[in-house]
């Protein structure tokens, strides 16, 4: 790659990282190109489209943050504390970085490396859930496939309240966590989504938001 082409790629990656954090992964690509000082055509020539650009700037960031959250959660002696800490840390990421919020709550069909990282973290989540179940601290019918409900809810609350009540998501999460305690459990009216359904819904969310941000 020529030096000027490499410089354009670096500028686009830097601009994308900043704008994605501020606006989310559906931020207009034209704004990213403008911030990088290049044409939209250059962006498409170098990356092909939104998903490839996301895959160029987000995987390392998401992997590091999710791994840190899992390490902290697994270090907790009480299984319930570990489970709730992990959820809280994920929600804090959503509240402070819209790009990470989108990355953990949606899927982008051609952002293959990012998708692999997000899917891989589910093994750790299942471990936290299993420990909390075994300790009798988490309602028995909660599954790893229920986790996206919390992420979708938090994402919506964060976007709706960020400018007026930036900590509102913490209250919403507290209500949810109380509902996950065994003492609060009542029969649920519907089964959990399957892993395939969760993946399909996340792809749909990513596609819809990307279409809005073009």
TrEMBL record:
Keywords: DNA-binding, Transcription, Transcription regulation. It comes from the Bacteria. Residues 28-47 bind DNA. Coiled coil: none annotated. Pfam families: TetR_C_43 (PF21597), TetR_N (PF00440). The keyword DNA-binding applies. The keyword DNA-binding applies. Residues 6-65 form the HTH tetR-type domain. One of its GO terms (molecular function) is DNA-binding transcription factor activity. This is TetR family transcriptional regulator. It comes from Paractinoplanes tereljensis.
């Amino acid at each position: 790659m020529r030096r000027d082409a490499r410089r354009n790629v670096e500028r686009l990656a830097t601009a994308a990282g900043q704008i994605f954090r501020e606006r989310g992964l559906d931020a207009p690509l034209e704004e990213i190109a403008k911030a990088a000082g290049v044409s939209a055509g250059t962006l498409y020539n170098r990356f092909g489209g939104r998903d490839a650009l996301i895959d160029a700037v987000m995987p390392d960031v998401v992997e590091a943050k999710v791994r840190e959250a899992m390490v902290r959660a697994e270090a907790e002696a009480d299984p319930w504390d570990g489970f709730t800490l992990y959820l809280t840390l994920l929600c804090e990421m959503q509240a402070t970085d819209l790009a990470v919020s989108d990355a953990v709550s949606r899927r982008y069909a051609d952002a293959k490396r990012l998708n692999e990282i997000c899917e891989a973290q589910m093994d750790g989540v299942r471990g936290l859930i299993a420990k909390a179940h075994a300790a009798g601290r988490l309602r028995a019918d909660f599954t790893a496939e229920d986790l996206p409900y919390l992420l979708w809810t938090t994402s919506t609350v964060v976007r709706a309240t960020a400018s007026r009540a930036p900590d509102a998501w913490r209250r919403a999460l507290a209500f949810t966590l109380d509902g996950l305690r065994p003492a609060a459990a009542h029969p649920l009216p519907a089964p959990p989504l399957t892993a395939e359904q969760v993946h399909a819904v996340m792809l749909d969310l990513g596609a819809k938001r990307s279409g809005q941000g073009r």
